[in-house]
Structure formats: C-alpha cells, structure tokens
Amino acid sequence: MTAERRNDRGRERNRGGSGRRQFSQQAPSQRTRTADPARLVAFEVLRAVSRDDAYANLVLPARIRHHRLDRRDAGFATELAYGALRGQGTYDSVLSRCVDRPLERLDPAVLDVLRLGAHQLLSMRVPPHAALNQTVALTRAVVGAGPGSLVNAVLRRVAEQGLDAWLDELAAEAPDEIEAAAIRHAHPAWIVRALRQSLVAHGRPVSEIDDLLEADNAAPVVNLVALPGLGSLDEALDAGATRGELVEGSALSSGGDLGRWAAVRGGTLRVQDVGSQLVARAVVAAPLSAGGNGDERWLDLCAGPGGKAALLGALASQRGATLLANEPAEHRAELVRQALRPVPPEAWSVRAGDGRTLGGEERGAFTRVIADVPCSGLGALRRRPESRWRRMPQDLAELAPLQRELLDSAIEATAPGGVVGYVTCSPHPAETTAVVEDALRRRRDIEPLDAGAILDAAALEPLGAGHPLASGRGTTAQLWPHIHGTDAMFLALFRKLPPSKES
C-alpha cells in the first residue's frame, strides 16, 4: 500500500468515489450527540406509543410543552411523529430490505429512530443529508453511540431510491390487489378489506377505496367547537382559524399549541371532530312524538372522555333540560366532569357505572339518549395514527355483544316518544347496520327515524347533496372522511314506542 494513502500515524485514508479515501471533517468525538428538540419530541412520542401503549394525540401536546417548542418546531414534530406512526407498516417493509436481520431483533428504540429517519427521507421535504445527520445525532443522544453506525448505514440504503420506487418494488411482490393497496397506503391488509366491505355495505362504490385510504393518511385539520351559549370562536378566528362550513359554532385550525388560548384552557372552546358534533346535534334535533312528556332529561350513555357530553350539556342548558353523563371507569368519569365544568352545574351530573345496567335502573327516564358505543375506531384512523397497527380483526367480534347490550340499555332508558341515537366512529357493517338490524328484528318497542334527513337538518348545508347519507335499510347515515371531511361516523336514530303501539 502506498504511503500517500496513509496519514502520519500510518492509518489508511478514507476513499472517495474515485477510489481515494478522504478524511472525515469531524473526529468521532466531535460529531454531534445533541438531539434536535423537534425530533426528540417525535422520538419520545413513538417510544410512548410502542413501549407504553400510549395514545399519540395525548402524549404529543405534553411533550411539545415540556420541550417548549415554538409553533414551527411543534408543527415539524407533529408531522414527523404522526407520519412515522401512520406509515409504520410501509416503512417497516422498506427497512426490512435494508437491515441485515429481522426487525424484531433490533432494539425497539433503534427501530423507532429508523422509522423517523425513513419518514423524513421518503415523505417529508427534509434534505437527505439533514435527515441522515440529525437522525444519527438523535440515535447517539437517546440510544448511544454504538447504534449510530447501524442507523447511518440503514438509512443510506433507504435513501437510494424515493418512496414511489420503493412502493412499486414492494407492491410488485404483493400476492393480490388488497395486499398491494395495504403497502401503498400504509394500512394493514385486513383493514383494507374491512373498509372495502364497509363502502359496499353503505351503498358506496368499492372504487372509492383508494380515496378513503388516502383520506386516512392526510394530516387532519383540527376541528373546534364553541360550546353553545358559553363559548366563542373569536380567539380562534383571530389566530387564523376559519369558520366551519358544516356545523354551527365550529371552526377549523391548522393546529399548534391550542392550550395557549384562554377559551381552550377554560373549556368553552374545545377540540372535537365535526362528525362528532353533527351526530350529537342530530340526536338533539330529532323530533319527539306528540305524546312525549316534555324534553327534560337526556342521557349520554358512554360519555368518556367527555367531548360530546360537553356539547350536549351546553345544549341541554339552553333548552332547560338536564344531562346525565355515564362512564364506567372512574378516572374517565373524572375527565367527563372536567369537560362539563364550564356548563352550569344544574344542567348536568355524572354517573360512574356500567352503562349496560343503567337502562334497567332508570327505565323510561330519559327523553333523549345517545349511545356512542366502544368500537374498533376504523372511522378515526386519521386522528389516531397508531390505532391501525394495534387493532386486530377479532376486535370486531369481541365488541359486538357489548354494542348490542349498550343499545338495548339505551332503549330501556328511553321514555315513550323519546329518541335514541346509536353512534360509532366505525363504518364497519358488523358494528353499524348489523347491530341496528338486529335490534329492529328483536324489539317491538322502537321504530327507525330517517337519520340522514335529521343529520342534514342539523348541518349548515345538506351533507347528502350528491353523496347520499342513507345506508342499510335506508334510515341510517354514514359520514366519510373522503367525502364529508369528517371522521367516518355512523348514526342510527330510533323513536321509543308507547306500549300500546308496540308491534
């Protein structure tokens, strides 16, 4: 070996592209080991999700405040964390081509760093050198110096081609179009099948599946609601939010630390998806029968964590009614109490108990009842980026008996002439139309109402124009993120029949 390839200590120089090695400009001891704060926040969110089974939307704001990120860095951290979580399955498929061992054998923290690096390289407008350097620096700061070389080598392989080329390569090896769509749109294959089935069950063409999956992957706009009679949109509008076009008292915001707003801190301005606002208002707008005993007591059977309860409580207060908010878990019942605190206390109360027993305990006591039952959450995947990788097909079967029992309890709790709303944030027929049809088949004390028409009446503009809401028997309604810009909320409305009219 020639002397010119060695330094004065006899060490070989680094080769460049021409075959001649070049010295690194920095000694290993001088390379940065300090994590960029925005990337550190994203890493902490991914670790909380994968290690602690936490929810990203709850962890992220706290970490942003802890690290005192400004608006720009908070936006970067949000896109990085949510994007890496949404695309986890696709990024893992790419990474598996670039790592010399099964991904499950990697340190989980290193795998989370690699996911963050892959998202920056493939789906963000981050220069490749910055994505590589900062991700390696993050690795050294939070995991250790040793794994930094591995992360650097793997991400260099990831960066050899763009996302489209990776997707083409991976999809070409998929066994069928569903598996290919799962790779291209970063959804588990079983969810792709479930959403295809859901479209058909609700009268939509299966050809909309790509649009639906893309809507799931779009960064959601923050939806706000000013509690009727209590809150104002002024602070949000002054900060750049725009008035919502679908629901009275709603606004759309690009996000940031909303906790800085006085109205948000006071609870009179709240974050709530417009679909959730609509179904709550539809239950309130549904007409009672002429023989009813007055619009006095309302029930939110599954109230936690309290978003709908706060809106319903404010509406009840305006109408001189009272709301009972029920939640089985005491810690979540406390969240409901906190959500309702801005509402005059005489308009609401909270019960911590099993909703399945409430109908028998307070039979016929309520004129309006909403049962927003626990469900798979397949309609809210865009707002809960980690949930698509947590849910399993068996969740649908396990939830079905609970959903039916809660609907039965809601019906028992409703007074003759009163209204029951059955709500899910899932479009899957096993959780929506199948539950409704089962109730109508078994019971003679309810009749279906036209949920689509009532939902339209509750909105500022017709939701069904060109996009029919009706599904199932033609009386239920289904919202869609790719059509209405909401979570995929399902609504069925029933009227409780007097005993003499049961058929």
Automatic annotation (TrEMBL):
SUPFAM superfamilies: NusB-like (SSF48013), S-adenosyl-L-methionine-dependent methyltransferases (SSF53335). Residues 1-35 are annotated as: Disordered. Keywords: Methyltransferase, RNA-binding, S-adenosyl-L-methionine, Transferase. Residues 22-32 have a biased composition (Polar residues). Residues 198-497 form the SAM-dependent MTase RsmB/NOP-type domain. It comes from the Bacteria. The keyword Methyltransferase applies. The keyword Ribosomal protein does not apply. S-adenosyl-L-methionine binds at C302, A303, G304, P305, G306, G307, K308, E327, D354, D372. Residues 1-15 have a biased composition (Basic and acidic residues). The active site is at C425. PANTHER family: NOP2 YEAST -RELATED NOL1/NOP2/FMU SUN DOMAIN-CONTAINING, RIBOSOMAL RNA SMALL SUBUNIT METHYLTRANSFERASE B-RELATED. Belongs to the class I-like SAM-binding methyltransferase superfamily. RsmB/NOP family. This is Transcription antitermination factor NusB. It comes from Sinomonas terricola.
